[in-house]
## 1
Amino acid sequence: MKIVDAHSHAYDYSKNELEKLEKDFIIISVSEDYSTSKKSIELSKIYRNIIPVVGIHPWIPHRINVKDELRKIEELIKRTSIKIIGEIGLDKTRFRKTLDVQLKVFEELLKTAADYDLAVNIHSAGTAGKIFQLLLKYDIKKAYFHWYTGSIPLMKQIESVGYFIGINVVFEDSKNNFEAAKNVNLRNVLFESDGPYKTRGIRLSTFMLKNTIEKFAELRGIKPEKAIKISYKNLMRYLK
Ligand SMILES: [Zn+2]
């Protein structure tokens, strides 16, 4: 069974890496803006294991023409068979000063997700509670909290409405994400790399997922094969 990477920026991998990834992995390729959204769609035409996702990352809005970018993203959604909008959300940790414009873009994209009945792939640094409220407000049916670092009681609320929780390849080094790994309901878990992305001297990548899933399985007292199967089934529910 293929291993699912629920959050990756696949357009930043080399051709050689993408070719190697094709056999064993299903990759949800999130995007940051219109240009990377187009790249994700192009990649999905070449590599059958890539699921394209379009969106505007919360680190971007203060640098772009928001209205124009939103219009172009919606056109992509109209023209293609996109199922997920992402990477979208709010970041209070690194970009507190731009929260107003982040919120404007995020709410517009949630409206679009609701209009077209799409899932969302969420960035929620320091904002998981606020985002959960907004997802409910816009009646979003399917959501994935990428690299979840919120509290455990909040995670239980998020799970109760059927949304998914992301465990990253470096969950053992990420205090809150480790707590999430220990406590997440298996019906709501998905694994991800966020790769290729460099943090604390490590280049995160989809290739690390096998090892991560083994560690998660050990932590939870299940077989790695079972964890792989669970994440595949969860992906199917996320995409349905
Ligand atoms: Zn990301």
## 2
Amino acid sequence: MKHVALKTLLLLPLGWMMLTAPGLAEEKPVVAPPELDPVSGMKMAENWELVRIHCTVCHSPQQYLRQKGNASTWTETIRWMQKSGGLWPLTQETETKIVTYLAQNYGPDEAFRRAPLSGYLMPVNPYGSEAKREFEDKKKSGALPPTPPPQ
Ligand code: HEC
């Protein structure tokens, strides 16, 4: 009995140290990136085969693997595909799965295009002033041929 108690006493501080060791509690679990399918180059994450079935009939997967977008961008892409690319109607469930796969695996990241600059951050456009004035002057003086009528 005495022996067990002594052991517990010795182990207690050790357990306490392990629980409170700095960094241990905050450590995030390391998630391995999904493997790539050697044929299509697609990330083999959940529902990747569903996306491959629907999206590689008409073109290479590179058409969408090189794009990045959030769920709304990908939904727009699918609508555009349906309107002008000939993509068939999808059930809501299938569309959600495709959009979720694309947004999670090909979503915006650091390499995503930046948003356009606001107008007040843009430099003065020289073509809007001097060159335009010169063009208008030449036009007025008859130095330029008249604009052809619309066909
Ligand atoms: C029935 C044929 C068809 C299917 C199926 C199809 N696409 Fe397309 N896709 C096209 C065509 C045609 C174009 C070229 C359209 C253009 O450039 O005007 C295109 C172009 C694209 C582009 C543009 C690439 C670029 O250079 O900007 C993306 C992105 C895209 N498809 C994604 C998808 C996704 C995601 C799916 C699956 C949900 C899909 N496509 C399924 C026919 C299809």
